[in-house]
Amino acid sequence: MRLAFHRCMQDAPLIDPTGPSMDEAILASILARRIRPGSRLGESELAKIFGVSRTLVREAMMRLEARHIVEVRPRRGWFVVEPSVAEARLVFGARRALEGGAIRLLPPLAPDHRARLHAHLADERSAIAAGDHPRLVCLMGDFHIRLMEILGNPVLAEIMRDLTARTILIAMLYQSDDHAEESHRGHCRIVAALERGDRHAAAEEATRHLDEVEAGLDFDMGADALADLRRSLLPPNASALPAFPPARTRRSSAC
After folding, report:
1. Span of the secretion signal (predicted)?
2. What is the band of 249 on the pLDDT scale with cuts at 50, 70, 90?
């Protein structure tokens, strides 16, 4: 398997030992939607990529498992989780509770906080204009993490990072439309409310934003687990196999 943060398979380690840890590198790739739900994370491959022992790989996987990002399947190895519909609803409920409460605790925006948020929104607009979807997705998730960082609570920032990763996995499975500009406008409304000093309105905007994202989920998209295999078995010039539902196209959108 070739992971997105890995350009080619070589014997020498490709990861800078002074850079992010293995689990953080994997999490960052999930946040950028370069690793998809259900992807297998082979211990041998990761050991070669990172230039470490399989024991260290296993320890990193166990840390990600504790954060509900990966899971181990008996006799098959480690896989990125594929959130169920029930889990998706729980994750959005957790995000509403966390963000709504945390934003109400935010201090008045300092000049450097304003500058960072406006620079971030400008980056979002630039990615939208350029059609740079991978960068846009990463920016959309980072916005919510930045709000927690302004609060100055690293514990909340870490929880938000994990929930954002789980939300992105959910989006890759169940989102069908691209709502990038709508999500960007939601972020703009949150920042505008914070600049007015109205933390209550900012929290309500954050909740509204999450409601809109969850409302855009199509939980029927994960119903036909054999859709890709069905397409591969189509006879020449056939548009569908009889007696089976048609496969649906999945287009990920930003959260």
Report:
1. none
2. very low
